[in-house]
Amino acid sequence: MSFIKITEHPSLHDNLEKKSVRELLEGINEEDQKVAIAVQKAIPQIEKLVTQIVPRMKQGGRIFYMGAGTSGRLGVLDASEIPPTFGMPPTLVIGLIAGGDTALRNPVENAEDNMERGWEELVEHQINEKDTVIGIAASGTTPYVIGALRNARAHGILTGSISSNPDSPLSAEAEVPIEMIVGPEFVTGSSRMKSGTGQKMILNMITTSVMIQLGRVKGNKMVNMQLSNKKLVDRGTRMVSEELGLEYEQSKRLLLMYGSVKKAVDAYRAQQNNE
């Protein structure tokens, strides 16, 4: 089957410069509504990837996101949100972007065209068979990402991919390819739009479900979140209060003493059991 680059197809909307602000916004929103449906169709593949990641992480494995441009930035974003949300060390979910941290704010010329650099970076992180490498590329053709996945898979490492074109070269390299076919972008070829939105949704789904499976959420609450500002201390205090039936100030003292909702609740209950 020949490879069709849907991400480069002409927009279904034309003469954009002649439209009013309201027409532009409604057009973008009309396209955005297609994203959740495309992601929904990919759930079986997302499930397949997550169920293979969890046992690896229980053995100390890590997740590496590999991407360039928007895709790389979204991987770094998702990775950076795991420590504050779930109280995990920043070494467990790692986002690598073609061109390094400079590329988070500025384009780095030709960085994504280097087929070997992605694997070299993984080797620098002592990649091993407990780890998972997830390549992100809307087009499914980014050499930096393809090279990393090809080498990782050859070394017996679990590989997944997220792309917006069916049967892409990237999908061919991944053990578990995730394809969310969102269709042409509102501005032709601007994959920071629907493709980026869909990538963010899938990354949220992967890491959130993995962290829940690893016991980092209780009920529906972030009991391991970092207490990095007043809002989070207040939220954590209310969680402790609700869980233990204590007054707000006592709950706050416990929370700040032990550093997380889970530790505070566990310590209080252990103390009660010993009395």
Automatic annotation (TrEMBL):
SIS domain boundaries: 53-216
Function comment: Specifically catalyzes the cleavage of the D-lactyl ether substituent of MurNAc 6-phosphate, producing GlcNAc 6-phosphate and D-lactate.
Name of the protein: N-acetylmuramic acid 6-phosphate etherase
Gene: murQ
InterPro entries to which the protein is assigned, alphabetical: Etherase_MurQ, Glucokinase_regulatory_CS, MURQ/GCKR, SIS_dom, SIS_dom_sf
HAMAP family: MurQ (MF_00068)
PANTHER family in alphabetical order: GLUCOKINASE REGULATORY PROTEIN (PTHR10088:SF4)
Family: Belongs to the GCKR-like family. MurNAc-6-P etherase subfamily.
Classification of source organism: Bacteria, Pseudomonadati, Bacteroidota, Bacteroidia, Bacteroidales
General remark: A lyase-type mechanism (elimination/hydration) is suggested for the cleavage of the lactyl ether bond of MurNAc 6-phosphate, with the formation of an alpha,beta-unsaturated aldehyde intermediate with (E)-stereochemistry, followed by the syn addition of water to give product.
PROSITE patterns: GCKR, SIS
EC annotation from Swiss-Prot or TrEMBL: 4.2.1.126
Keywords assigned: Carbohydrate metabolism, Lyase
Pathway where this protein functions: Amino-sugar metabolism; N-acetylmuramate degradation
Active site per database record: E81, E112
One Gene Ontology term from the biological process aspect of the record: amino sugar catabolic process
UniProt-recorded Gene Ontology molecular function terms: carbohydrate derivative binding; carbon-oxygen lyase activity; ether hydrolase activity
Assembly with partners or alone: Homodimer.
Catalyzed reaction equations: N-acetyl-D-muramate 6-phosphate + H2O = N-acetyl-D-glucosamine 6-phosphate + (R)-lactate
